[in-house]
Amino acid sequence: MAACFLVMLWMGVPSPELESFFQAAKQGDTEVVQAQLAAHPEWAAARNKRGRTALSLAADAGRDAVIVPLVEQGADVNAVIGKSGWSPLMYAAYRGHESTARLLLNFGAEADFQDNRGVTAAMLAGYREDVTMLALLVEQGASLNLRNAAGENALLFAAERANAQVTAFLLSQGVPVDGVDFSGNTALLKLAPKGNRGAVEVLLDQGADVRVQNDKGQTALMLAARGGHMDIVQMLLAQGADLDARDVAGEGVAFYAFRNGYTPLARVLIQCGFEQDRPNRRGMTLRQLAERKRFDLEADVSGQVVWLR
């Protein structure tokens, strides 16, 4: 009967009683969970229509008291959950439930479990800017240098959101400052367009290469200009960023600023020495591009660049 019931569950046959069990696990109703497990011990491994186990729901909600009877009844702490392939620990890490994560780890959860895209709990913790969770995972043996399907380690995965504290912690644990993903991006390249000054400063203080180019030929300077971040541009130039670098389309930093509507920044870059008459691969110069948009890039007698609508 139990085997038949489990087959029905896998087929997605509705069961109000089972749904109430999942709901109790999610809400942390320990008494209900224990009572239903006593009557249906196989429910510890059951899944709802989305492929979620009661343990994953409890971990997601930080219901530590519910986790204990589920695991004691045989719930798999490393079960692959749903389409994403997350583990219960990954849900706890993503939500910032430190005590839940510690409990799961004590029950044998794999600190380095990777989902269908190669993402780990440490990557999720970094993305959520949770240094406390990161420290716990490292304490339990998690590697920060595992790669996901995009070639990102914990620093690269978190870089688009990471604050200075997360960035500093990851670097202090030996994550290479200039590691690259499968597209040739370093953490600096990922952070530059976001305008996160503090995190950029941490990377620069640790010797990040400001001249590295990704597979598209883009530099951190170009990407900072694309985001209109004057302060990041100034920091990168002060560290020796190449003002004359060009991407695979033959466009340089001032193109990036101008194309994205940051005209004052493009003006500053020209004043700093960007060569506006050097054409891109289509034969168009920045001056010609500006003229198309009815800008005048001619310098006046004082040498100042004047841009007029």
Automatic annotation (TrEMBL):
Per its UniProt record, what Gene3D superfamilies does this chain match?
Ankyrin repeat-containing domain
SUPFAM superfamilies from the UniProt entry: Ankyrin repeat
Question: InterPro entries of this UniProt entry?
Answer: Ankyrin_rpt, Ankyrin_rpt-contain_sf
Name of one Pfam family that matches: Ank_2
Please provide the record's keywords in A-Z order. Answer: ANK repeat, Repeat
Name the SMART domains on file. ANK
Ranges for the ANK repeats: 50-82, 84-116, 117-149, 150-182, 183-215, 216-248
Q: PROSITE patterns, per this entry?
A: ANK_REP_REGION, ANK_REPEAT
What name goes with this protein?
Ankyrin repeat domain-containing protein
